[in-house]
Design goal:
Layout: H1 28-39, H2 53-76, H3 83-96, E1 100-101, E2 114-117, E3 120-122, E4 137-146, E5 149-158, H4 164-182, H5 190-203, E6 207-208, E7 214-216, E8 223-227, E9 244-247, E10 250-252, E11 258-260, E12 268-270, E13 276-278, E14 281-285, E15 290-294
Antiparallel strand pairs: 1-4, 2-4, 3-12, 4-5, 6-10, 7-8, 9-14, 10-13, 11-12, 14-15
Helix pairs in contact: 2-3, 4-5
Bound molecules: 2-amino-4-trifluoromethylsulfanyl-butyric acid (MF3) and cobalt (II) ion.
2-amino-4-trifluoromethylsulfanyl-butyric acid binds next to strand 4.
Amino acid sequence: MVYIGNAKFERNAPCWCGSGKKYKNCHESFDEKLRSYALKGAIVPDRGLIKTPEQIRGIKESAKVNIAVLDEVASRIREGMTTEEIDEIVYDVTVKSGAIPAPLHYEGFPKSVCTSINEEVCHGIPAPDRVLKDGDIINVDVSTILNGFFSDSSRMFLIGNVSEEKKKLVQVTKECVDIGISMVKPWTFLGDMGDAVHRHALENGYSVVREIGGHGCGLEFHEDPYVSYVSRPGTEMLMVPGMCFTIEPMVNMGTDKIYQDEENGWTIYTDDGMPSAQWEVQVVVTEDGCEVVTW
Ligand code: MF3
Ligand code: CO
């Protein structure tokens, strides 16, 4: 992860970031700053994780499709619908937009979207016999590839009359993401953000899944860094402008312990059978904070 650039030989050459400016007038001081953090022992991103303006434009175009897909799901999701029908909506809207659903055939995943209901933490597989019932909470996790650029976001939906307890879990999880967004600032650490997310969940009596988190996203579905929401301040990767990653904590009403479905090899459940919620956004780190590209 540590990048040690050779500024001397590149100062008049075009900057590596693709801006078209000379290196000395563009990312030279940035590289020096990064190097000083690296020398102090910080985990710093390598250049591949810092997106060029053109790449960010591509990611945002992909994100527009991603949002449109979720908006369509939002307008049609209802009690009595099967998760298979949600999969069909996601596939149709994505493909009609000239894009590809990233989950389809990803490491053998059989469907176009993840649909995770109640105690399902993530990676629920849509099925024709899985019917949405009154009182369910469901996460619909949509990931999109457009012109080779990846976007990823998910929302929770409440089906019919949902208990106050479950509503609060969904609401607090959304607040966790908002807090995460507010903590994305260049030259601070992912661990600062992860800890703030974690604390908000804990303050509300919830737990946060430890083994699965967010990820860099943009040129690949899952890139570095791994983004934990149980991390400590001042640890994990340094955030710098141009980095693009997801904020997607999985918040459990009960234990943080989870297990994987042995039959399908994908779906993750809470160990105690209590509900879990998740919202996901994708952000690009800017000079003074971040821009949310999927929301
Ligand atoms: N969308 C999930 C994420 O946020 C990844 C799902 S992988 C799949 O990282 F294969 F299950 F789609
Ligand atoms: Co994701």
